[in-house]
């Protein structure tokens, strides 16, 4: 028969591991046939064994509360944080604990004892402690988390436990950009918008929004590539034909971000694009026409200048030629006059025309005796003289010769 004992508290019993107590109870039940007396019948040993198993299970739940052992009642949970931030892990144990050791990726980073408290060895790993009833909670704080901190974080009480570890994931949000913040598009123009994410861990998930609506994944494509120091890059290209002014947003998301990182671009739809094209075409046409006309005018002007220059040269040459001809003619005329002068000789100052010569000879004829005539009238005694009234003033200084002189006129 079991005797009942008054339990005053956990300190009334020594602390033993739960597994050792269970092993002793099971061994005793198997060897002795049970703790209770056997009744008549063939099934008595089997009933005694089943009752012994039930008693062992009851003791396994009752002994921890009496202080025979302690365990982890709530272990740490997985955490995902951004690089540079803090990570927290909690480990709750039952009363009677002696030591808690925190390990990061298998290496001890902090120790907590019931007698001395936290024993910190580095500033990056600290702890805070809480007590609630008969349970004790140790909180591990990892400051300035780094990508290399990712891995298993363990809470050890130096006893077997199933829920004494968790995983830390440190993520890095890099840069996100769209090269052009504002774009002007024309009607029926298809454009490509490129969104670039650099230096992420892990590679981000890229999505696009058109105004306030998500864009279908078939409208864009994303390529990922490894970067330096374990980081990743992503390049997403959106292809669309805008119909109106729109705002496009590129979204990059990882688990540690409270909200996706974004970059925007404004598309300005130009309704006058066609008119501008026509104006540009017209302007281009006018420019071409003007260039052709100016070129033609330039050629014509060049030809005119050449013609004028040639004419001026010819005119100068002609003037020179005429001057030479005139000079030659003048010289010839001068030479002719000189020759004529040489041919004609000096002026014969004693030259008397024949008429005057005949007149001068007539007195000699008048001195002849008059001829008798039967037609003589009453004035027969009248003296007739044919001496001219005007005589030359100049007289020859030489004796006049009866030689006949010919009068020549040179033209």
TrEMBL record:
Record-annotated Ig-like domain positions: 64-159, 160-266
PROSITE patterns (alphabetical): IG_LIKE
InterPro entries, per database record: CD80_C2-set, Ig-like_dom, Ig-like_dom_sf, Ig-like_fold, Ig_sub
Annotated membrane topology: Single-pass membrane protein
Alphabetic keyword roster: Disulfide bond, Membrane, Transmembrane, Transmembrane helix
SMART domains, sorted: IG
Subcellular location: Membrane
Domain of life: Eukaryota
TM annotation in the entry: 286-310
GO CC annotation, single: membrane
Biological process, per Gene Ontology: cell-cell adhesion
Chief site of localization: membrane
PANTHER family, sorted: IMMUNOGLOBULIN SUPERFAMILY MEMBER 5
Protein name, UniProt field: Immunoglobulin superfamily member 5
Provenance organism: Ficedula albicollis (Collared flycatcher)
Gene name of the encoded protein: IGSF5
